[in-house]
Amino acid sequence: MSEPLSRRTLLRAGATTAVLLGAGVLATGTAAATVPASSYFDLTQPSYDLFRGAMLHESHHVMQGFAFDNVNRRLFIVQAQNGTSGDDLCVNQVSFSGELEGWMHLDGAGHGVSIGVEPVGTASYIWMECDSDSTGTDGRGTALARFKFASGGTPSVRKFLTGSKTITCATDPVYERILVRRNEGGRMWFSLYSLADAAAGDFSAPLAHFPQPALSDPAPTFQGYTVFGQYLYTLDGTGHDDPADIDSYVTRIDLNTGTVAGRALTKAGSTLTYREPEGMAIYRTAAGETRLFLGFGSRDGVDRYANVFYKNVLLG
To answer: Where is the signal peptide (predicted)?
Structure first.
């Protein structure tokens, strides 16, 4: 499902456990960007299957964002819940071959465009939007939630950056950072932090802070993002039945400049039935191969399926 921007101004307040970004940081342009140089993915190289046709806990909704716990070797995928108003979300734990291993519900959360995961010992803590600004499919989060994943349980949530608008996040499991995307002054901005600082409630010193660059006019449909080292990766496009109509693109953006460094069409999963781009993530295998993952939803009648692919060629 695509991510139209919400223009609602009603924000649900919640007790914050974080230090909000100061007005000076929000008002200025790019903050002092101090992200060390890193390798980057060659977006022109082929993509490979992790799995196709996975049924998640909520059978009537496609996957949205997803993320990996790189320490405990877990994959989590978020989607909307069956039979609710649209902003109630379900977090699925899925095996690397696509089998459902657990799930949790977070009601009134938002849309789930992107999520993050933080390993703490043997536990996985989910980072995702919460406190939706409406109770329909156009609802978007106004704060970040952090909670321990426990299948079938009720999340015990800490909230950060409350009072935000259209906020989501993604985690870099290799460099242990978190990237926050939210609407600031009518435009989407990205802010990069140390994951340890964020978990401690300290958002006072972003490593980078810049507006989302324009990719075309009109803007393409934004479908997900992730972060690895010096670069942000985004996914955009719409759903199609005909492979000839594929318009899914992956873009690489330099976190230090906020500018586009590469962009390429992706045909991963081109034979899926009604293929729609949905989410991105980073994972490093036990053997040390770093992968850039792309998600695509598909369907068969009323049933919806998750499909995950990856690129693995690094340059630099």
So the answer is: 1-33
**Per-residue model confidence as pLDDT tens digits over 254-299:** 999 999 999 999 999 999 999 999 999 999 999 999 999 999 999 9
Q: Are 296 and 275 in contact (CB under 8 A)?
A: yes
Phi-psi region of 83 (alpha: psi -120 to 50; beta: other; left: phi over 0): left
Contacts of 184 (CB under 8 A, 6+ apart): 26, 165
Helix, strand, coil shares of the chain, percent, nearest 5, are 5, 45, 50
Number of domain units in the chain: 1
Question: What's the Cα-to-Cα distance from 12 to each of 105, 115, 177, rounded to whole Å?
Answer: 19, 20, 27
DSSP character for 197?
A: H
**Structure tokens belonging to residue 50:** 């992790």
In this structure, is residue 84 part of a structural domain? yes
Structure-model confidence comparison of residues 235 and 25, the more confident one: 235
Check whether 4 has a pLDDT greater than 80: no
Report the pLDDT averaged over residues 162-183: 98
The better pLDDT of the pair 12, 156 is held by: 156
Tally of residues, the chain: 316
Specify if 132 maps to a domain: yes
In a domain, 21, yes or no: no
CA R_g for the chain:
18
* Contact call for residues 179 and 147 (beta carbons, < 8 A): no
Q: For residue 65, with 0-12 CB atoms within 10 Å meaning exposed, 13-18 middle and 19 or more buried, which class applies?
A: buried
pLDDT of residue 33: 75
pLDDT for 32 equals: 55
Q: Which residue in this structure is represented by tokens 């972060």?
A: 227
Residues 6+ apart with CB under 8 A from 9: none
